[in-house]
């Protein structure tokens, strides 16, 4: 067990290895470790965020679906109402049209009746004239007159 | 396996030593060196006569080679380090680094960029050096014997020079950080005014040598205990492997296998203890505890 230079040699080698380890081994591996740690933490945070986003999106889509359903219901109701209105309106129109037609027909009938009456009157006048002529030409006979007047009345 | 059991054991515990023999030294084979020469020792006596100016080529060689394996392996992982999905090597290196980082963070609460890489280097390097203990004791020495090397001790941590070299480096760091954090006055005060202190100035001065002795011993004990704990454990383990190797070859496995399995625990534990104590000592150096 001799104490000799080996001790110094070992101390020098020790120093060199420690410095090498300190400069070229420790820092890169520590950096990689820390970077990986950060990456994993970031990844976990991102997955949390994604899960939260998913939940939000699901909620939102459910809400939108609900709104769409409501809108559709409202639209259908509106359309029904509108259809009823249209039917009512056309019924009204039809009734009005019918009344107008009836009115028109009545007016026409009235007019025709008036015309007929006028024509009758003219004819009655002509007949009266012709009757009067006949009476003037022949003797006026009451019975004959009556007979003629009856005829006249029948003709009216 | 030539010679007696005692020779076999001694041979296994002898380092391959390259050192300086003084002028006029008579070598083992009877030749006398004319002037001071640097050469490989041919036996234990020569190695010990070389004194301080000698290198244990085997210990240092294996230790540097294992250290290189560690830094190259970890550098490869560091170069390809990615924050994406890691590969097998990166996984392993990351596990090691997180383990060391957690150990450091549990004990040391200040800010220091040296301690964590230092602890990593100590743990991996000491572990690899200890791991050489599990290579069968005769395997590598025989291989190197064929290549011409007389001695080959393959477990660097069974060489007290290696463990002392590391623990004294740690000791230097302890002194450095003590001075840096507490200042010269604070450090000297810590050594001289505690644990015994008094409000009386004269008594305080009288107590200084006592405190210095106590604190000085506890300070010096840190690197010594650090080095000798690791050395002692591994030396003992190695010695038991050598003793087991003295048994007939067909009986060796019955003892060497259980001992090797137990030793896996020892080598890991000793590497961990060396690392943990280094962290503890350095965090103590950073704290103004008094």
Blueprint (SSEs and pairs):
The complex is a heterodimer of chains A (156) and B (290).
Chain A: H1 6-137, H2 142-155
Chain B: H1 5-12, E1 17-21, E2 37-40, H2 44-49, E3 54-56, H3 57-79, H4 88-107, H5 115-131, H6 139-146, H7 160-192, H8 201-245, H9 249-286
Antiparallel strand pairs in B: 1-2, 1-3
Concise structural overview:
The complex is a heterodimer of chains A (156) and B (290). Chain A is mainly alpha-helical and 156 residues long.
Characterization of the model:
The complex is a heterodimer of chains A (156) and B (290). Chain A is mostly helical and 156 residues long. Chain A has one domain (6-115). In chain A, 94% of the residues lie in helices and 0% in strands. Chain A has two helices and no strands. Chain A is rod-shaped, with a radius of gyration of 61 Å. The mean pLDDT of chain A is 89. Chain B is mainly α. Chain B has one domain. In chain B, strands 2-1-3 form a three-stranded antiparallel beta sheet. Chain B is globular, with a radius of gyration of 23 Å. The termini of chain B are far apart. The mean pLDDT of chain B is 89. Chain A binds chain B through residues 1-11, 13-15, 17-18, 20-22, 24-26, 28-33, 35-36, 39, and chain B through 15, 17, 19, 47-48, 50-56, 59-60, 63-64, 67, 70-71, 74-75, 77-79, 81-84, 86, 90, 93-94, 97-98, 101, 113-114, 116-118, 120-121, 125, 156, 159-162, 164-166, 168-169.
Task: List its salient traits.
heterodimer, A: 156 residues, mainly alpha, 2 helices, 94% helix, B: 290 residues, 9 helices
Helix percent band of chain A: over 70%
Class per helix and strand makeup of chain B: mainly alpha
Main pleated-sheet profile of chain B? 3 strands, antiparallel
Strand content of chain B: under 5%
